[in-house]
Amino acid sequence: MINQLSWKVGGQQGEGIESTGEIFSIALNRLGYYLYGYRHFSSRIKGGHTNNKIRVSTTQVRSISDDLDILVAFDQETIDVNYKELHENGVIMADTKFDPKKPEDTQASLYAVPFTEIATELGTSLMKNMVAIGATSAVLDLDIKVFEEVVQEIFGRKGQQVVDKNMEAIQAGYDHMKEKLGEKVGAMQLDKADGQKRLFMIGNDAIALGAMAGGCRFMAAYPITPASEIMEYLIKKLPAVGGTVIQTEDEIAAVTMAIGANYGGVRALTASAGPGLSLKMEAIGLSGITETPLVIVDTQRGGPSTGLPTKQEQSDLMAMIYGTHGEIPKIVMAPSTVQEAFYDTAEAFNLAEEYQCPVIVLTDLQLSLGKQTVEPLEFDKVEIRRGKLQSGDLPEIENKGYFKRYEVTEDGVSPRVIPGMKNGIHHVTGVEHEETGKPSESAANRIAQMDKRMRKIENIKFNNPVHKNAPHEEADLLIVGFNSTRGAIEEAMGRLEQDGIKVNHAQVRLIHPFPVDEILPLVQSAKKVAIIENNATGQLANILKMNVGSHGKINKILKYDGNPFLPHEIHTKCKELF
Amino acid sequence: MATFKDFRNNVKPNWCPGCGDFSVQAAMQRAAANVGLEPENLAVVSGIGCSGRISGYINSYGFHGIHGRSLPIAQGVKMANRDLTVIASGGDGDGFAIGMGHTIHAIRRNIDITYIVMDNQIYGLTKGQTSPRSAAGFKTKSTPQGSIEQAISPMEMALTAGATFVAQSFSTDLKDLTALIEAGIKHKGFSLINVFSPCVTYNKVNTYDWFKENLTKLSDVEGYDPSSRELAMQTLMKHDGLVTGLIYQNTERKSYQEMINGYSETPLANADLTLDQEYFDKLTAEFV
């Protein structure tokens, strides 16, 4: 019996690789296993190698695994590209159709299975994926009944006959492979799962759901990988609560429309990836100087320019903190799990209204698109707080005086009104302005307004700005990361502890303003610090140096080849520090 | 009920004496009063440029944004609060150069706002460079040999983009302009009003006298019918775009808001932000 399994299916893009992984995953998730799926795909619709790697475990996993147990291949390229991940008892199941060849330097076993042939005999070659799922079930000695429900849900609309045919295909794959395996049936039998029904979702689902729960009722966005799922989800679900999504003509329209909508009084969102964020920068400054709430999601991918549009990277960090010309208050949050993505997105709308500034929810491709098992999302933990938004009757202002929308206050936050409110008329402009919003170039006013704006986020209230797992008062090593590296770091940490190295872990959740008070003691109590990040220059490491010093202690462990960190890579690189 | 004086504030415009924009401002104030608005129910969103300052000169909610983006901001405001009257405004550089993408798409999207362009065929605030509305051969600081690019024909362009309300006016025709803005506000959908608003400082070609000489009033064109898109296009081409009046109106097409699936009939700005626990549970159940 094994307590976790790593399974990968690969082939040409557009031949159903994704849905094969989906059906397999949903069924296992419903049995109570924890899953983590990561897709390797290209920026094209048909053709090109794609694969879906799925990790199944009896405990929570948040990283792709170092190695591979089972590889299902629909073409030779899948074998050639992926076989090195297989361990010596690994199994390759490949379609006989392409006469699969096993590379010489692997101990894994190759089984040629007539996926396409069996499927064609049953009616259509499209069902070859179902045959593969059946064959996998034989290796795992899994009762194929577990797939009935999912197959019914997916194909039910097409009629019972289609459902039955697909189940037959799974059965046929199972029978064929069972015979081939002989005694080896169930060679990789998984421990029984707890049967709990948990959520199975990608980070972008959680972000969209978090936006709904956080009161977002309007979104303006332009399609881009890996952010589009957010708008696609919200356009389906917002109408039920009266809201909607507009697909705009470009990224600038998306962000400025969101600014207009927030100014108009609705909680509005825009989401994009690096190229889109680059285009939104001027408008982010507008939100900053006009103190208009704004929530933006940045799903990081490989940059610069078009870069690696379907690959993992974390290189937008500096741009998100400093991006826009001039100086504005801004909040940048970086959830590291799907749950955090949900809570943080909801909270972003509160912070945007409380501090009247742009709030960026930073994720990365691995977190945004990695599909995983998630513990229940607690709706009652989501609050709605609207800061100094005025309600009710406002006092009359004489002589057509304007409402002091930019009143200089102690905490820097001014009372906010929205269009339509009587006695609330004021001016809003991206030009420097005085308390009523009228343009002003006075030096004293400039200082007063700039100080007021920057003061707003000095004492920002943010629960758990750092996810800490710090069992040691004095540690040999502090590992710091942000966004999706959390899972791989946690696994590496366990292995390092087994090696006798005392490790503390900090995953930075509030990137800006940087939570110095939380991080500094951890840095001070560690002999060495390793910053794990998917970029080439060590952006988080540099931010850390800037904020907490300790230059001599800080080591950068970087990966920027487009792929997520694997636990063993972090483990090895950290060990090399000693 | 508010009068046009209620839409005046105590800010003195920084436009040059004689600038056409003064009249556009007056027409907007009169139109707002004539359609029965209260100052707090009007939001004027403007771009960057001399004319972009207009949102600060009217006693209403005003948003002076960034160059070329008055339209997406204005559409966002309208989406947030469908009960507000939203007017976007700016110059020809703002709307037909840097913001042209938004102009075309706002036209075809047909959200119920009014867009007033103060067209002076020159960049004024940056002190005299060519604009996409400058005629070929027009000499400016950035085109010392004369512009070698073709000028944009915004009215023809609007018609091809699927506009439902297209009008053009001249800043000195205060009465006609006011009536057109009123009609634009009342129109259910996107209304585009291009106003020839002469720059007395940097444009010595397209002057008040030049317009008086060259403009044709559509009311003087025999048999003109603004419900005919074909006639509108023909007439514009015949007069090289130099016509004033209501060029085209389509009253049959519904506005964007009227067509959105599930869009709240009350302003989203007033929406209850708390989701129903039951609805939330329904949403999460889809992920099991």
UniProtKB/TrEMBL annotation, chain A:
<keyword id="KW-0560">Oxidoreductase</keyword>
<dbReference type="Pfam" id="PF01558">
    <property type="entry name" value="POR"/>
</dbReference>
<dbReference type="InterPro" id="IPR050722">
    <property type="entry name" value="Pyruvate:ferred/Flavod_OxRd"/>
</dbReference>
<dbReference type="InterPro" id="IPR022367">
    <property type="entry name" value="2-oxoacid/accept_OxRdtase_asu"/>
</dbReference>
<dbReference type="InterPro" id="IPR002869">
    <property type="entry name" value="Pyrv_flavodox_OxRed_cen"/>
</dbReference>
<feature type="domain" description="Pyruvate/ketoisovalerate oxidoreductase catalytic">
    <location>
        <begin position="14"/>
        <end position="175"/>
    </location>
</feature>
<dbReference type="InterPro" id="IPR009014">
    <property type="entry name" value="Transketo_C/PFOR_II"/>
</dbReference>
<dbReference type="InterPro" id="IPR002880">
    <property type="entry name" value="Pyrv_Fd/Flavodoxin_OxRdtase_N"/>
</dbReference>
<dbReference type="GO" id="GO:0006979">
    <property type="term" value="P:response to oxidative stress"/>
</dbReference>
<feature type="domain" description="Pyruvate flavodoxin/ferredoxin oxidoreductase pyrimidine binding">
    <location>
        <begin position="210"/>
        <end position="450"/>
    </location>
</feature>
<dbReference type="InterPro" id="IPR029061">
    <property type="entry name" value="THDP-binding"/>
</dbReference>
<dbReference type="InterPro" id="IPR033412">
    <property type="entry name" value="PFOR_II"/>
</dbReference>
<dbReference type="GO" id="GO:0016903">
    <property type="term" value="F:oxidoreductase activity, acting on the aldehyde or oxo group of donors"/>
</dbReference>
<feature type="domain" description="Pyruvate:ferredoxin oxidoreductase core">
    <location>
        <begin position="475"/>
        <end position="569"/>
    </location>
</feature>
<dbReference type="Pfam" id="PF17147">
    <property type="entry name" value="PFOR_II"/>
</dbReference>
<dbReference type="InterPro" id="IPR019752">
    <property type="entry name" value="Pyrv/ketoisovalerate_OxRed_cat"/>
</dbReference>
<protein>
    <submittedName>
        <fullName>2-oxoglutarate ferredoxin oxidoreductase subunit alpha</fullName>
    </submittedName>
</protein>
<dbReference type="Pfam" id="PF01855">
    <property type="entry name" value="POR_N"/>
</dbReference>
From TrEMBL, chain B:
<keyword id="KW-0411">Iron-sulfur</keyword>
<keyword id="KW-0560">Oxidoreductase</keyword>
<dbReference type="InterPro" id="IPR011766">
    <property type="entry name" value="TPP_enzyme_TPP-bd"/>
</dbReference>
<feature type="domain" description="Pyruvate ferredoxin oxidoreductase beta subunit C-terminal">
    <location>
        <begin position="199"/>
        <end position="264"/>
    </location>
</feature>
<dbReference type="GO" id="GO:0051536">
    <property type="term" value="F:iron-sulfur cluster binding"/>
</dbReference>
<dbReference type="GO" id="GO:0046872">
    <property type="term" value="F:metal ion binding"/>
</dbReference>
<keyword id="KW-0408">Iron</keyword>
<keyword id="KW-0479">Metal-binding</keyword>
<feature type="domain" description="Thiamine pyrophosphate enzyme TPP-binding">
    <location>
        <begin position="48"/>
        <end position="195"/>
    </location>
</feature>
<dbReference type="Pfam" id="PF02775">
    <property type="entry name" value="TPP_enzyme_C"/>
</dbReference>
<keyword id="KW-0460">Magnesium</keyword>
<dbReference type="GO" id="GO:0045333">
    <property type="term" value="P:cellular respiration"/>
</dbReference>
<dbReference type="InterPro" id="IPR051457">
    <property type="entry name" value="2-oxoacid:Fd_oxidoreductase"/>
</dbReference>
<dbReference type="GO" id="GO:0030976">
    <property type="term" value="F:thiamine pyrophosphate binding"/>
</dbReference>
<dbReference type="InterPro" id="IPR011896">
    <property type="entry name" value="OFOB"/>
</dbReference>
<dbReference type="GO" id="GO:0016625">
    <property type="term" value="F:oxidoreductase activity, acting on the aldehyde or oxo group of donors, iron-sulfur protein as acceptor"/>
</dbReference>
<keyword id="KW-0786">Thiamine pyrophosphate</keyword>
<protein>
    <submittedName>
        <fullName>2-oxoacid ferredoxin oxidoreductase</fullName>
    </submittedName>
</protein>
<dbReference type="InterPro" id="IPR032686">
    <property type="entry name" value="PFO_beta_C"/>
</dbReference>
<dbReference type="Pfam" id="PF12367">
    <property type="entry name" value="PFO_beta_C"/>
</dbReference>
<dbReference type="InterPro" id="IPR029061">
    <property type="entry name" value="THDP-binding"/>
</dbReference>
